[in-house]
């Protein structure tokens, strides 16, 4: 059973079968299949079925490719409530950014990194911007 | 100026702690070179030819004397006792030890400074007019807006891994001193027909390998929508900017590829979702930002009396008079002047300043200019609020320290990147070219006679020396392992921004002073009355210069 970080804890994964975007869109069993997004794919087709998605995986072929950050945020802004999982080559140093964009699960390439990576979720306790985990930007929260 | 509260301080402190951990993991071999590279770049640390280079953020160029003293001390403790003012108004250390950088950053944080996002593929330091708040032609002070953008862009979770670096500039004046047309996003404070204030938004300007003048994407953006609109632009760029070729990755290439109308449409579509959301600025926040940039307590001075006294001093000491004429600028408050401290003395690398000079400038800022100063993208320092009656004392102190070279805006006020002496990306050295040109044109009467002239030098296509927008631009190129220099003419950074045109085949380093002299002699022979170089160039074009130089 693969292990991953979900909602701030290390857990074993019992996720659904994963399809790529094209397969998922054509599948008759969409609501029980996860979909994996690759950088460069258009979110528009997925957003049309937003109520049917049980789980989204966002792949990072390299940690330098920041497109996945926007995917997560756009999904959340449009009301998606299910799991968004980062997979691929992201770094623990990106965990706060990722979770602020709406990722709530992180599947590392190397599972042995999980324990060390977990505290990185708390690298920053404050941030200026509005984000998925804290919808009010600092300027609306600042004590007067 | 802006003062951190507990939130700002916490964010900066937590970044220092995070970076300390990243450095330790790198030194432990737990982070690879490839992984550490963007992490350190996003914290301003390059590994250069001879040593690391650390770039410290100076938000929109504004600093306090206390911060400057800290920089001086750090330059002694961690470096070789001098620093460099960059063309993005930042400050660079040239020789810090990689392992000591976290300590250096912790010390910086104690004076509310950091190096966050001074490099890397993220949103960089927002720049503005060095005369913000005191310029006579200002519609509105751009600094509160710069601060709002600084906070929004600092550690933005969605835009830390963009296709390429991203630069924003803001101006609020008739004359554009912030080069907003040469930025990924340029913002100009404007009035609409109803007299309300807002932003004209430009997008897709930039220098580098493919220089482009920015296009207008929105003629009037209501101020409360600033951040949501910026997010929409950044999101379109983050999703669609090219990532396969770093030379085609800037937003200017995307805007060109899509066409500005299609790009605007894509932005509007994103904006429709973000608009009026929580990031919409509140009146409270706008006034909070403004409250940090109120006018200092100026003396009420009688302009005429003060001017008469200054004129008297100027005529009895013509060297002082000349400095006042060349290096000081009109201030919006009667009886005050804006003072430029020139970091362009002949024999010193343009923009370099020693620890002792830094401390002196800090003292002078306290004594003469309310304890604040600004760095400029021309790589000088500005003391913005000097009483005219105190100019003489200030000048004497500056002169003793070699900081009163009366050349602001003239040929020898050269903009010059660190180039091959420091920078590992360089094709060629740039500082020796600047120094040779300064040495050749030592006759200041000749230099003044040439009128306003911008000479910008970059050591490679990355264009940190802004060579494309210099009236005369010099670019270091590599020809079969040899350093050569390509010259361009007719660039300009104002609202009439233009990209310089390449003169022709490149030149050897030792020939550069002669080439310059040739160009300038040609200019003088073609000039009508007191025409500026750029105006003559625009009238006659490049051909006469070409003919003369390659004759
Ligand atoms: S222009 Fe090139 S050589 Fe000069 S500082 Fe920038 S990257 Fe280095």
UniProtKB/TrEMBL annotation, chain A:
InterPro entries: UCP030820. It comes from the Bacteria. This is Oxidoreductase. It comes from Pseudohalioglobus lutimaris.
UniProtKB/TrEMBL annotation, chain B:
GO terms for molecular function: 4 iron, 4 sulfur cluster binding; heme binding; metal ion binding; oxidoreductase activity. The keyword Metal-binding applies. InterPro entries: NIR_SIR_4Fe-4S, NiRdtase/SiRdtase_haem-b_fer, Nit/Sulf_reduc_fer-like_dom_sf, NO2/SO3_Rdtase_4Fe4S_dom, NO2/SO3_Rdtase_4Fe4S_sf. Pfam families: NIR_SIR (PF01077), NIR_SIR_ferr (PF03460). Residues 53-110, 351-400 form the Nitrite/Sulfite reductase ferredoxin-like domain. Coiled coil: none annotated. Signal peptide: none annotated. Keywords: 4Fe-4S, Heme, Iron, Iron-sulfur, Metal-binding, Oxidoreductase. Residues 119-272, 413-549 form the Nitrite/sulphite reductase 4Fe-4S domain. This is Sulfite reductase. The lineage of its organism: Bacteria, Pseudomonadati, Pseudomonadota, Gammaproteobacteria, Cellvibrionales.
């Amino acid at each position: 059973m693969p292990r991953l970080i979900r909602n701030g804890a290390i857990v074993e994964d019992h996720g659904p079968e994963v399809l790529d975007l094209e397969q998922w869109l054509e599948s008759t069993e969409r609501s029980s299949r996860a979909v994996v997004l690759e950088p460069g794919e258009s979110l528009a087709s997925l957003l049309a079925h937003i109520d049917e998605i049980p789980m989204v995986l966002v792949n990072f072929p390299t940690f330098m490719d920041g497109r996945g950050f926007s995917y997560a945020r756009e999904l959340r802004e449009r009301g998606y409530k299910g799991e968004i999982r980062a997979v691929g080559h992201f770094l623990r140093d990106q965990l706060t950014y990722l979770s602020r964009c709406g990722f709530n699960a992180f599947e590392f390439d190397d599972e042995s990194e999980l324990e060390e990576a977990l505290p990185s979720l708390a690298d920053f306790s404050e941030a200026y911007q509005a984000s998925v985990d804290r919808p009010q930007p600092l300027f609306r929260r600042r004590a007067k | 100026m802006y003062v951190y509260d507990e939130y700002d301080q916490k964010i900066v402190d937590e970044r220092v702690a995070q970076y300390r951990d990243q450095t330790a993991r790198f030194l432990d071999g737990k982070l690879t070179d490839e992984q550490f590279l963007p992490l350190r770049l996003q914290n301003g640390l390059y590994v250069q030819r001879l040593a690391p280079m650390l770039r410290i953020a100076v938000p929109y160029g504004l600093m306090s004397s206390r911060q400057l003293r800290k920089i001086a001390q750090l330059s002694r403790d961690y470096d070789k006792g001098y620093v460099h003012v960059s063309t993005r108004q930042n400050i660079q250390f040239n020789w810090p030890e990689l392992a000591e950088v976290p300590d250096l950053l912790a010390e910086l944080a104690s004076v509310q400074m950091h190096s966050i996002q001074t490099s890397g593929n993220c949103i960089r330091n927002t720049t503005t007019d060095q005369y913000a708040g005191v310029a006579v032609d200002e519609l509105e002070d751009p600094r509160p807006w710069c601060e709002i953008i600084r906070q929004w862009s600092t550690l933005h979770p969605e835009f830390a891994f963009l296709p390429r670096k991203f630069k924003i500039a803001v101006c609020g004046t008739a004359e554009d001193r912030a080069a907003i047309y040469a930025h990924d996003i340029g913002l100009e404070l404007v009035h609409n027909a109803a007299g309300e204030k807002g932003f004209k938004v430009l997008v897709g300007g930039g220098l580098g390998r493919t220089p482009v003048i920015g296009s207008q994407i929105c003629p009037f953006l209501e101020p409360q929508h600033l951040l949501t609109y910026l997010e929409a632009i950044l999101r379109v760029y983050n999703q669609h900017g090219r990532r396969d070729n770093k030379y085609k990755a800037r937003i200017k290439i995307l805007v060109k590829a899509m066409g500005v109308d299609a790009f605007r449409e894509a932005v509007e579509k994103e904006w429709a979702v973000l608009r009026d959301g929580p990031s919409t600025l509140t009146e409270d926040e706008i006034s909070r930002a403004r409250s940090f940039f109120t006018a200092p307590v100026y003396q009420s001075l009688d302009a005429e009396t003060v001017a008469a006294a200054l004129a008297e001093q100027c005529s009895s000491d013509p060297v002082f008079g000349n400095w006042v004429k060349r290096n000081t600028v009109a201030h919006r408050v009667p009886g005050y002047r804006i003072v430029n401290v020139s970091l362009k003395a002949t024999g010193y690398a343009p923009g370099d300043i020693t620890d002792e000079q830094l401390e002196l400038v800090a003292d002078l800022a306290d004594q003469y200019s309310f304890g604040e100063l600004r760095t400029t993208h021309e790589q000088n320092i500005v003391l913005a609020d000097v009483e005219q009656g105190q100019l003489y004392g200030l000048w004497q102190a500056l002169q003793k320290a070699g900081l009163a070279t009366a050349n602001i805006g003239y040929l020898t006020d050269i903009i010059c990147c660190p180039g091959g002496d420091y920078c590992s990306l360089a094709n060629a050295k740039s500082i020796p070219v600047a120094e040779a040109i300064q040495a050749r044109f030592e006759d200041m009467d000749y230099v003044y006679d040439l009128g306003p002239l911008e000479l910008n030098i970059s050591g490679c296509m990355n264009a940190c020396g802004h060579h494309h927008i210099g009236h005369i631009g010099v670019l270091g190129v590599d020809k079969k392992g040899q350093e050569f220099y390509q010259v361009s003419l007719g660039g300009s950074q104002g609202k009439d921004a233009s990209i310089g045109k390449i003169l022709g085949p490149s030149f050897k380093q030792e020939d550069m002073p002669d080439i310059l002299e040739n160009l300038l002699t040609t200019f003088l022979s073609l000039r009508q009355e007191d025409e500026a170089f750029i105006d003559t160039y625009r009238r006659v074009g490049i051909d006469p210069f070409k003919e003369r130089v390659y004759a």
